[in-house]
Amino acid sequence: MGERTVVILIDALGCELVDHHGFSPGSLPFRTRLKTVLGFSQAALTSILTGSAPDVHGLWMMFSFVGGGSPFGLLRGLRLFGGPDRLWVRNLLRWKLSRIDRVTAYFSLYDIPREVLERLDLPARKSVFGPLGGGNRRSILDQAYDEGGVFIRDYDTPEEQAFDELESALETGESSFHLVYTAGLDSDLHRYGSREEAIGSRLRLYRERIDSLVSRFPDPRFIVLGDHGMCDVTGHIDLIKSVEATGLKIPGDYVPFYDSTMARFRVSGERASRAISEILERSPGGKLLGTEELNSLGVHFPRGEYGDIVFLCDPGTIILPSYMGSAPVKGMHGYHPGASCMDSVMFSSEEFQGDEAPVTGIARFLLPGFRGGGRKE
Ligand SMILES: [Zn+2]
Predict the structure, then answer these.
(1) Model-level pTM?
(2) Whether 24 contacts 208, CB under 8 Å
């Protein structure tokens, strides 16, 4: 067996909150600042595991707009929820249920106007941690599965149990690639914000588990990282009310999707496009993203599957109410990756070249020899 690798992926392990709470696994000497991608965890995790940007792997946001006006997207999937052929819907809803922001997403699905719901789809139909989970691209997990001996624990396993099982797996030595993903910190941060002691105590638990693993098993390469940071929420805007005041009709003129920090619109015709753009340009607390900016952020989809118009909130501002729920949260992510609170961090037993890296640039560090490429290559 070749070199063994252990990756511990802590959702929302932000650089700033790590500094604030003094989280630093003493056993891992190297530290790299990570710049995330625009989007939520699905976008960031897929970018980490495939080494490519969302407009390359294709899985930018949880919900996309159905093309061609055919109302057979999400709604049909939900109607057949429970049917054996709709396993992907169940897997996705479980993924959402495992996280605070996605818990509210699950329940508020039923608050999304029916005429919007009918025009939405779920582009990610597989777990990002399973085979073929990387959208259009091969992920490091595809390659690790091919090479054999993979140990993965994700949101299906309680965190303490996942660490216990990781320890047993390292003892028996059956696997060469190990990945443990934890969502508890992310959900605490949504609930408490970044400065509460609850965050510090959870980080201490992680540090103890990591340090004890590294001291017990000195041989494997250890990498601990996050997918994005977390910004404390300072205000909210009622975007739905402003857009609805235009008198434009859903779905004839436009189909919206109001996420917690982003609003995306599929529009029909110049009149609707101009009216919505004007409202958004005047709205405080955020800005429209132009084609050039979407391009440079690696989230430009020219066919409009994620919307023709994209509005992004300023760090700390949330859209309320949104399709993600009407309860305010204390922490949120999904802001411009240039905001320092969005930065994540990576600790490692081996040195990574450079103090800073994009999350799209570490796949080969996580799995040495990772070849990447398209799914069909
Ligand atoms: Zn989150």
Answers:
(1) 0.91
(2) no
